[in-house]
Structure formats: structure tokens, C-alpha cells
Design a protein that fits this description.
Order of helices and strands: EHEEEEEHHEEEHEH
CATH topology: Hypothetical Protein Pfu-838710-001
Strand content: 25-35%
Structural class: alpha+beta
Number of domains: 1
Number of strands: 10
Radius of gyration: 20 Å
Length: 257
């Protein structure tokens, strides 16, 4: 139980020579010492509606099994869940950074999410539900059906994939604040943004902690995103669902999905 806040740091000067995670690694080690993080992969796939390519997107998000320090393969299975996030808002051409401001997710009618189990059923389900209505039937499928008497088949949902590597640090010991920190790294070494996800009982501690993870005097644009909700909802699957929705929204508003 507790609060979760995401921070997006965008820094891409012409003279930058290192990936963004190297800029923040030193500050993070001050809090977590030599503790090794747990590594996971966040698999996203975004589908764009054919009826209106600028406003309606659907994203599936799934987490790979965690890989513990010192291992190359997952040590245990992860909850078999895929999150489906729908974004039905106008597109944003680029990031609009907001410094020192917590941004609340959009209303459920504009940006909402659900958790689906088992994960393997999600893409077949979406193909059956969305293809006939959202993506339509291809001209070739209709032509083939008219000449061969076959039933027209819905257009395949291709989607745009994105894989993010996430490193999770367990809460450090006193005197450091008991914050669970996850670093979400985009696949490109030259990516202009990096995302930090922090979880703790006290929201004020989170904001100060995240600000302290950024290097001093470097600059860049900072955007915070939180969620106004009852603390009882920040547990287990519900916490993961809300954090996943916030991450997808940040990616969407930055033009990354």
C-alpha cells in the first residue's frame, strides 16, 4: 500500500555522448549502494484505429518474468497478466514538459485500462473483436472472397512493438527513505528520455527522492505524473495497472508509442 509517482527526464543536448541512465546511476548508487536490481522487460504493442488515426489508440502491456541479480534467466514465473490501455485523446506532436508539477491521468472516458488473464489470449481476442469493426477488411480479402467463395477474413492487427528494459531496486535500509525505484530504459542508447517509477508510503518523500536522482546542474526537462486515488487501491495488481497506465500515457504524450 502506498503511492506511486513517475518521473520523465528528457535531456538531449547535441554534445551528449552517454545514455541517460549513466547520468543518474551515480546518484542512485548513493541511495542503494551496491545492491543489484531485478531486471524485467516491458513489452508494449500499440494498435492505431483506422477510422481516426490521430485520436484512438490501444496499447497492450505485459511484463516478462523477473531476472534476479547474477542470473541470465528468469527465476520464477510472473503473474500471467496483460494490461490493455485505451487512449482516445488528440495526439500530441511532442513532449510538453512540466517542471515540478504532478499531472493526473485523464478521465476514464478518455484514457482507461483493464487487466486481462491469461496473457496468451489477449492478441487473439483483440483480433476477433477489433478487426471487423476498427481495422476493417482489406481489399485483397474482399476480392479473394468474391472470386473463391471464401468468407472474408478480418485484417490482421499488426501493431507497433516497443520493448523497455526495467531495473527495480528494493527499498534501501535507513537512513535512506524506503523507496522502491524502477528505472525504465528505452531501447535506443541515444533515447532523449528516461522514466523513473518510485513507490513509497508518503507522496512527499517520493517527489523529493525522484528529484534527488537527477544530476545537479545538468538541466533538461522534467515531468511528474501521479494518480489521485484511495490508498487502499495501491496494492498488487491494481497498483501495477495504474502504474502501467501512467507509463503508457507518458510514452504516448512524448510521441514514443
Amino acid at each position: 500500500m502506498g503511492h506511486t509517482i513517475l518521473l520523465q527526464w528528457t535531456y538531449n543536448p547535441p554534445q551528449r555522448t552517454a545514455p541517460l541512465n549513466e547520468y543518474i546511476l551515480t546518484r542512485i548508487l548513493e541511495h542503494y549502494g551496491l545492491s543489484q536490481p531485478i531486471r524485467t522487460t516491458v513489452q508494449l504493442r500499440t494498435f492505431r484505429a483506422a477510422v481516426d488515426t490521430s485520436t484512438r489508440l490501444l496499447t497492450t502491456l505485459a511484463y516478462s518474468p523477473p531476472v534476479l541479480p547474477g542470473r541470465e534467466t528468469p527465476s520464477q514465473p510472473r503473474d500471467n497478466t496483460t494490461f490493455i490501455i485505451i487512449d482516445d485523446r488528440p495526439a500530441v506532436n511532442g513532449p510538453e514538459p512540466t517542471v515540478d508539477q504532478t499531472i493526473k491521468p485523464a478521465a476514464p472516458s478518455q484514457f482507461s485500462s483493464i487487466a486481462v488473464r491469461p496473457a496468451a489470449h489477449v492478441l487473439p481476442l483483440l483480433t476477433n473483436l477489433l478487426s471487423p469493426f476498427v481495422m476493417g477488411l482489406t481489399k485483397s480479402a474482399r476480392a479473394a472472397a468474391s472470386t473463391t467463395a471464401e468468407i472474408p477474413r478480418p485484417t490482421t492487427l499488426p501493431g507497433t512493438p516497443l520493448a523497455i528494459t526495467s531495473l527495480t531496486f528494493s527499498p534501501p535500509s535507513a537512513p535512506h527513505p524506503p523507496v522502491t525505484l524502477t528505472i525504465h530504459n528505452l531501447p535506443s542508447q541515444t533515447a532523449a528520455s528516461i522514466f523513473l517509477e518510485a513507490e513509497c508510503e508518503t507522496e512527499e518523500v517520493l517527489r523529493d527522492f525522484l528529484a534527488g536522482c537527477l544530476p545537479e546542474g545538468v538541466g533538461g526537462d522534467v515531468k511528474y505524473m501521479g494518480w489521485d486515488g484511495e490508498e487502499s487501491s495501491w496494492e498488487g495488481l491494481e497498483r501495477t495497472r495504474k502504474a502501467s497506465q501512467m507509463l503508457v500515457r507518458l510514452l504516448r504524450e512524448s510521441g514514443l508509442t
